[in-house]
Amino acid sequence: MKNRIRELRVERNMTQEDLAEIIGVSRQTINAIEKEKFDPSLPTAFKMARLFEKTIEEIFSFD
Amino acid sequence: MELMKIERNKRVRKLALWTWNWMATMAIATFGPKFIWDDHEFLSIFSLLVNFTTGIIMILANRNLFNHFDELERKVHLEAMALTLGLSVVVGLSFSLLDQQNYIPFEAEISYLVMFMGITYLIASVVNSNRFK
User: Do B75 and A24 touch (CB under 8 A)?
Assistant: First the structure.
């Protein structure tokens, strides 16, 4: 699954550590999601969508 | 994040403490009857009960730590556990058959299986963690 997490995070001048703290996961998890090695759970995807004020479809796309 | 780390360390320390307690009570239950209380029946049964209870508390401490993992860590450890369980059943039974048919020059002790499980879980966790880096 492709995602725009890194792009949206950098736009807001956030570090992976900042994002991890807000979402409630580890920095390694954020890194794995950004590198598209790991697909987040639905609650995590919703938290990210709410944080970045986007819909889930605007952040994640199924290729 | 700092609070998460503090809580994580607390749970790891708790698991380490109960693992140590379990190992210590296992050693006492193993060597006590021969070297400390000279096969006293009540003390032998009591030491086994203490060891069993400590083992249950260790399992609960492990579950407590697991419940603090985030989704990626859970995936890493669940996969490692699945691999460990599967390999332990297959390798354990093959090992037992080898012993039954006298293909190995020693007894297939349960301790070999426990060591195998520990090493398998450790390697599987490390390899799995690296997959997501």
Answer: no
